[in-house]
Amino acid sequence: MNIDRVLSTFLFDTFNLFWLGLGLFVAAIIEVFLWKTPVFQLANQPIQTEWFGANKKWRGLISLPIAHTISVLLFQFIERLFLSRWDIFIGYSSFNVFEYGLLVGFIFNFAELPNSFVKRRLNIPPGDESSRLFYFIDHMDSTFGVVILWYFYFHFSTHLALTGFVVTPLFFMGATELRKKLGLK
Question: What pTM does this model have?
Fold first, then answer.
């Protein structure tokens, strides 16, 4: 196999994943504002404290799909205005806004639940960042859930999915740190 072709494909896939991940990053910012509304205060209840801990709340399962749908609409608008001639990446415009926005937003948060369940069984406190391994796993669960959705439901290529398993947790860790620095987490 040609190493230049492999590297080129990896970089191209990484760019696509970054672009799609940017939509989730913007959705996470929108979500912070949704949580302050009275409607989402009603959903600020744990899903099941014994299983997942007190931090996994209904509002996350509801708000991120909505916020991501808004983000997808915004990115579709940006693509139409500025990137319509660029046929080099997977654009938001190739998706149904509600199907893509709601599914990806829901799966991103839903995929955290098995990890939270296991951590509660191991008596690991929510948000514990003292272990690099658990910090990585905390950023792996959501992103792996979305990569699996992209591959099986949206039929992304195998090489993009494999690249996604490598780079999306790294993107998510960077986005988490940026959100902390901006006071949004």
Answer: 0.88
